[in-house]
Amino acid sequence: MSKKLSTTNTNAPANADPLYIQTGAEDVVPDKLAGDGWTLNILWAITISIFIISFFTSAYQYTWSSVAAFLAIEGFKRVWDGIFKYTDPLLYRLFSHLPNFVQRIWHWLTRFYTLATPFVIITLVFMLLTPKEFSSFFTYFYPNQLCIEHQVDVLASICPNGVGTSQIQAGTEQVTVGIIDENHASPFDQSNGNTSEKQVESLIFQENKQVVTNKQYMTLMVATMLSRTLDDSELSISVGLKDLSGAYLAQKDYNAKHKLKVRLVIVNIGTRLAVDQTVEQVMKQVVLYARKDPTFRGMIGPPFSRSTQLALGQLAALHQSNIPVVSPSATSDLLSNTPGFYRVVSSDKVQSKYMGQFFGRHMVPAYQAKMHLKSDAPLNIAVFSDSTDPYSTSLNRDFLEQAQVQVPNLHPILEQYVVGRIDTITQGLQDALDQGAGMIYFSGYQADLKPLENALHELKIRKGITQTIPILGGDGLYEMNGYMDNEYETVFATVYASPIDPNSPFKKEFDQVFGQTADVPSGQPYALLAPHAILSYDATNTFLHALDKSLSINNNSNLPSVSDFNSALQNVTFEGISGLISFEGGNANSFQRSDPLNKGAYVMCVDQNHHTHTAASYGPDQSEHYFLKDALQCLS
Fold first, then answer.
1. Any transmembrane segments, and where (predicted)?
2. What is the pTM of this model?
3. Are 344 and 578 in contact (CB under 8 A)?
4. Which fold has domain 349-495+600-626?
5. What is the pLDDT of residue 340?
6. Helix (H) or strand (E) segment spanning residue 123
7. b/e for 180-216, b at 16 or more Cβ within 10 A?
């Protein structure tokens, strides 16, 4: 019997791919079957391609799927051999009909994937066995996208906790934003005027260091604005410092009375005008922190409507709408029905209702009497708004709706301006005065009020106007006791943080910790404390009352689960410094689930002698108390 000889194709190159092995005569059997190993090579090619592409494009759900497939192929080769012996010849026949250049591309690709296999295995082992060492590499090349977009348990030790700061370009300047705590304390404001920030942050972090010695505590974030720029050197950081002050006093008071303590982490989103550039990055850090810290239960802030809207939108985009947010002062109507979001102030619609009533019932009759106008004569009022700002837009719309109901003969002169742009304010004033405006409603912020008054004063002199032109506005003109330098017109604004008793425990504590900063108007039985400090105190206490409620329901002293805590937060009710705080967040049929129920408000004013007065108060029962003798001059 003749013996079959084993031969190889002498024309095949060294280390030839099976494609190059040609069968000889019928009595010759090659030592390697045609197509042997093709299925394995193709599977390797697919899984390694997915691994590399997904790794470098941050599509990490596919990265780990490809790793699992790769390990399954490598680990169970013997099992797959029974299948591969049938698929290999089929693949060989398929590829043998392809053009030579395709065959050569495939030939070299198989060698590339053979070389890539050790790299994939080494990288995977390095990731799993040395997570801390890999973390810095991972963070440098792939800005934490895996940790932000996907909660992957296997990488829990690699993902950072979000704490840290970075500089972001905002216009022509850079602002330092991010998250700091007692272990990473550094002021965001790098100017020489950062003493106040250092003081309040030091108080918070000292309290934190005592808190973390306990086994049980809850962590809350205070998201506010602690940066300065040339176009916002005071407003944002003033609001931010008051937010921190109120939150600290709430933390201090609660920890003094409870076993389960509260820890505060500080989040800075820059300035009011920089939020379009900063919020996205900072909210990604918030998400990282929320996933890393099991004690985290919610965020206090942000303070303004635009920043709040951006923050909520970013959290939703990152599938983190379950993080509860309580803002101390964001009032835009667009935020009234947002699941998981609450605020301790009512919407612009509510404050506009009160201001509309005050305007129609008291200011208009006084103006008509002074100007000797008939009751049906057209009444010209300039209404300023910024169409790009959600607070300004909704406040403008709501006031006009209410005012035109109260004063049918109202003739609004609509003027568009841009927040922070003095030139647009001046242009609007020029046009409004040319059309005979006798009053101004300014849907804006305190920082733009002084430029508005300066421009108004200059234009009145130029045009020979001698009459007082009152300025009305919303809670954006909140710091009424900050108008002591205003020299020209009377200013009226709605305020949600009520004037308080000068002898109240809250005022005494605030003065003891931060100094006597409250204004006590001469002859008045109340003090005007910074509204943002009061509102931040109430916003923080909203979380703390939810904590107490959840502990009571569960009848234990352990930190409630996220779901239990969020459930308790939906229906918190308590009497805050600013008035009643009560929510119905669990009512899916409500269009105001984010708003406090039956919240009252005040109309405050500053006269031309720089004295502050309470013009009127509006209670939860819709009652009105009017306190002035002369509405136009703000005289009580």
1. 42-60, 112-129
2. 0.76
3. yes
4. Rossmann fold (3.40.50)
5. 92
6. helix 100-129
7. bbbeeeebbbeeeebebbebbbebbbebbeebeeeee
